[in-house]
Amino acid sequence: MADKATVHITVNGQPHTSEVEPRLLLVHYLREHLGLTGTHVGCDTSQCGACTVHLDGQAVKSCTVFAVQADGSSVTTIEGIGAMGHLHPVQEGFWEMHGLQCGFCTPGMIMAAADLLNHNPNPSEEEIRHGLEGNYCRCTGYHNIVRAVQYAADKMSGKKSVGAAADD
Amino acid sequence: MYTAEFDYKKASSLQDALSLLQQHPDAKLLAGGHSLIPAMKLRLAAPSLLIDISKVPELRGVRMEGNTLIIGAATTYHELETNDLVRKAAPLLTEVIPHIGDPMVRHRGTIGGSLSHADPAADLPAAMLALGAQMKIQGRSGSRVVDADQFFQGMFSTALGEGEILTEIHIPALSGRQAYEKFPHPASRYAVVGVAVVAGPEGVRAAVTGAGEHALRLSRLEQALAGKPLNAETIAAACQNLLSAEGLNHDLVASAEYRAHLVDVLAKRALLRLV
Ligand SMILES: Cc1cc2nc3c(=O)[nH]c(=O)nc-3n(C[C@H](O)[C@H](O)[C@H](O)COP(=O)(O)OP(=O)(O)OC[C@H]3O[C@@H](n4cnc5c(N)ncnc54)[C@H](O)[C@@H]3O)c2cc1C
Ligand code: FES
Ligand code: FES
């Protein structure tokens, strides 16, 4: 029987100390130990990106990281990126541009898109598509997701005023 | 999916990692985990202990020593693709790395993990061969340096022995103009075939991944271009039947014959970019 390990992980600004089995995946730690079920498990084989969270400021697939690897780190999940009434610009973009249908991929898509805009505040359409290569959506056909990210980029660079959706 | 049970230790130094490996012969090193964790979930691997080397200081970072670019094995793809020393000394890497997986994979995956894993469809092995890189390997009884040409030995098989750790990758700086052309698998995005070329003062070095059991030099191409100027005619004449289809990989996506054809096409595209 493998020994349990003690981990200290800050999630959405709140410090947690937990005893975990080494084989516990970060996504299960978030969903089952902390009850943060916004982070989804789509494929569980590192392909789909539904489980994307930020680990020390970088987008990662939380189904492919053990919780013990995140010891001493800080994690941001979809629950921590914006707040009711103060949506993150990417969240607002998905709302305004109809960037989702069933919504299953959306938390991971938003976390990946926010990471993309952190690295590249003014991406071309091609850069958005390349940057979201690790996130699969089975519903939308991606076009409105790209528009949602463009909306957020414009909003964050001050090119778009609050709530003004593009007209197409 | 849950992996089998294992113990986990974070190595604090290279010495620490080496002695843990020595004490636990069925332990495995964990770097970025982006090949090992998926394999463990599928129970293709079930090590009793994971030794996390991702934070070992001796294995991290990029520096120049004389005319050699030295990359720590546990440096992530993301760190490399955004590093100015890499861009100046080995622009081929700056070009190849964005072809690997997706941003989340590149935030975790490491150069040393990719080379040690030696997936026949991985991108970096072709770049290492074309750049004439060397691998520094550390074991209980000291270290040795192995040429990339001797490092990749088979499918998922390298010159690394029991208890050894790949510590550094040594790359001759700016050995010439460089390019990479890849035909990605339509679903996994790994290389069906990828060709890396470097044209330097001593001629062309070229290598291919995805075609065979492991990445290999395209020696027929290198010889065909030896002593010749690089232009559309010499390139078109040289990029023919570079590999025989016999013995090449084949799967649902590409037959061995198609892979052989792709090698010619991608080698030509890569070389034309250097003219
Ligand atoms: C969705 C997805 C898409 C991908 N697409 C691509 C792609 O397009 N192209 C591509 O090339 N790769 C791709 N990969 C693989 C990725 O590049 C992996 O990160 C890489 O193969 C392994 O590196 P790692 O640091 O994650 O190693 P790990 O998974 O931690 O380790 C892999 C193996 O190497 C051993 N090891 C690690 N470091 C060392 C060391 N320093 N010395 C000795 N042994 C060591 C480990 O014990 C293990 O056996 C993809 C992976 C995923 C999940
Ligand atoms: S659930 Fe993690 S990538 Fe699909
Ligand atoms: S909205 Fe349904 S999977 Fe993307």
Automatic annotation (TrEMBL), chain A:
Domain 2Fe-2S ferredoxin-type: 5-81
Source domain of life: Bacteria
Keyword Metal-binding in annotation: yes
Enzyme Commission designation: 1.2.5.3
Assigned keywords, A-Z: 2Fe-2S, Iron, Iron-sulfur, Metal-binding, Oxidoreductase
Any Pfam family: Fer2_2
Coiled coil: none
Signal peptide location: none
TM annotation in the entry: none
Gene3D superfamilies xrefs: 3.10.20.30, [2Fe-2S]-binding domain
Main EC class the enzyme belongs to: oxidoreductase
Protein name, as recorded: Carbon monoxide dehydrogenase small chain
Organism the protein comes from: Meiothermus granaticius NBRC 107808
Gene expressing this chain: coxS
Automatic annotation (TrEMBL), chain B:
FAD-binding PCMH-type domain sequence ranges: 1-176
Pfam families: CO_deh_flav_C (PF03450), FAD_binding_5 (PF00941)
Molecular-function annotations in GO: carbon-monoxide oxygenase activity; FAD binding
InterPro entries: CO_DH_flav_C (IPR005107), CO_DH_flav_C_dom_sf (IPR036683), Diverse_Substr_Oxidored (IPR051312), FAD-bd_PCMH (IPR016166), FAD-bd_PCMH-like_sf (IPR036318), FAD-bd_PCMH_sub1 (IPR016167), FAD-bd_PCMH_sub2 (IPR016169), Mopterin_DH_FAD-bd (IPR002346)
Alphabetic keyword roster: FAD, Flavoprotein, Oxidoreductase
Record-listed E.C. numbers: 1.2.5.3
Protein name: Carbon monoxide dehydrogenase medium chain
Primary gene name: cutM_1
